[in-house]
Amino acid sequence: MDAGSLDARGILNGTDKSSLNHDYLRHYERMLAPFRYEPITLLEIGVFHGASLRMWSEYLERALVVGVDIRPDCAQYAADRREVEIGSQADKDFLEDLGRRRQPDVIVDDGSHQADHVILTFRTLFPHLRPGGIYIVEDMHFHAGPGAAHWRGASDMAPQDLFLRLARLVSCPQTEGDDGRDFAQRADSVEFFYGGVAVRKRPIKDRADVAIRRGLVEQANRPKLWSSFAMHTFNNTGDLADAVACVRRAMDMEPRNPEHPDVLSVILEHASDLPGALTAAEDASRLNPADNRLKARVAALRSRTQG
């Protein structure tokens, strides 16, 4: 074992995240490698005896490590580059304020492990996670088997069900239903490992890179590329008007191709314009009436628009 590894730091500091216990740190070392020497903010829910706060501050050499716990005595574990906030992860107002003030790059939920707390914390803090950041939930194995009911709290679902749904939406955006769709649009990947899950937030590409790609698309000037670039620019700049202009350029070049209004429909859906998304999907379906996928998409959008 490398004496400077995250796992070595975990063993020396006595955290149960190490290979002597849950063995989470071999995953975290890979995930957090890009952050190791960066001035990031890592926010951990659950301080206990401060072992993991010490570990994080030793391994992430320029990070500000912020621990959050409901117990006031945990304030004693604050030190250089380590701060402690006292509050409950069952308190949405506290979490909202925490997220706005801290704007973390990494969040680790090792708090109460109660399902309703885990879900509330994710739904509240993930929007405040910086683009390209990582949100980790530990000890999800508590929510399976005979002891699961003890950890359910007021939630009607286990945390793994929320994240499995999120993974389906990230990999297959056409999955029916709205629950979690707004989070999926901001997520880049969902990775499961023993006992936990890591959700990586979509990074924002440099606008200069987007501009370079636009120049290449202009040079090639093919309708398929304009449709692809429309989705690319919307995902990376959020400029809806520009994205719509790009896909309409493709539609003007190939007015009989159903792929272009289909792309427009997806962009408008992601922008929460369901009536516009439905109209574009209906246009695509009229251009290819034999396509059952387009028919199903029209039906799903119509149901969501009317419901």
Brief descriptors of the model:
elongated, 13 helices, about 300 residues, alpha/beta, Serine Threonine Protein Phosphatase 5, Tetratricopeptide repeat, 7 strands, seven-stranded mixed beta sheet
Explain what you see.
The protein contains 13 helices and 7 strands. The chain has helices at 6-13, 25-32, 51-59, 92-102, 115-125, 159-171, 181-184, 207-220, 223-237, 240-253, 259-270, 274-287, 292-306; strands at residues 41-45, 64-69, 82-86, 106-109, 134-137, 187-193, 196-201. The longest helix has 15 residues, at 223-237. The N and C termini lie far apart (57 Å). The mean pLDDT is 93.
Mean pLDDT: 93
- Summarize the amount of helix as a percent range: 40-55%
Q: What is the fourth-level CATH superfamily of the largest domain?
A: Vaccinia Virus protein VP39
The number of domains is 2
Strand segment count:
7
Unreliable parts: none
Strand content of the residues, in percent? 5-15%
